[in-house]
Amino acid sequence: VKAAVFASGTGSNFDAIIGRSNLACEIVVLICDKPGAPVIEKAISSGIQTLVLNPKAFVSKQEYETKILHFLRKMDVEWIFLAGYMRLIGPTLLAAYEDRIINTHPSLLPAFPGKDAISQAIQAGVKVTGVTIHFVDEGMDTGPIIAQRALEVLEDDTEATLKVRIQDVEHELYPEVINRLVRG
Ligand code: GRF
């Protein structure tokens, strides 16, 4: 089973997915919307094909996603895993990959959707936060929840220290959920 990862930034989740020893699918391509993003180097050095597109070079989101879709189809991609992809998925990809697009988010949704979920949690003073893996729909971090793992916010946590622990959880949980989904 072939799958694609979509990412815009650092790519620590990308690394966790491709580094998982018994991953139930093969990551055949990285789709990146940010030329120069560190995740691109990670894919190249792992020998994974990369498609880097600047969405601004397209007249519409539909054209941008149609280009991606052709590429995914050519590569027989069946699943899409978002890993820090900082863009809403549009109707073109949603229709083509119904219930096959998954995302990881660094909070216990529906709390703290969108950007800066970790600093939002710190600001709000919550004592528990966590990680959510969910199906992607047209909204921002709104799709049906597949799995969650909670984590305590410590008295002296900063955004940086909390982020480390949240990402450790993500790196373990996301590949685990991917395996469960792909194996049905
Ligand atoms: C992750 O924390 C993910 O939950 C969020 O964006 C971050 C991406 O980090 N959607 P990385 O690029 O995988 O290191």
From TrEMBL:
Pathway membership: Purine metabolism; IMP biosynthesis via de novo pathway; N(2)-formyl-N(1)-(5-phospho-D-ribosyl)glycinamide from N(1)-(5-phospho-D-ribosyl)glycinamide (10-formyl THF route): step 1/1
One Pfam match: Formyl_trans_N
Keyword flag Transferase: yes
Reaction(s) catalysed (UniProt annotation): N(1)-(5-phospho-beta-D-ribosyl)glycinamide + (6R)-10-formyltetrahydrofolate = N(2)-formyl-N(1)-(5-phospho-beta-D-ribosyl)glycinamide + (6S)-5,6,7,8-tetrahydrofolate + H(+)
Cross-referenced Gene3D superfamilies: Formyl transferase, N-terminal domain
UniProt-annotated binding residues for N(1)-(5-phospho-beta-D-ribosyl)glycinamide: 11-13
The name this protein goes by in its record: Phosphoribosylglycinamide formyltransferase
Gene: purN
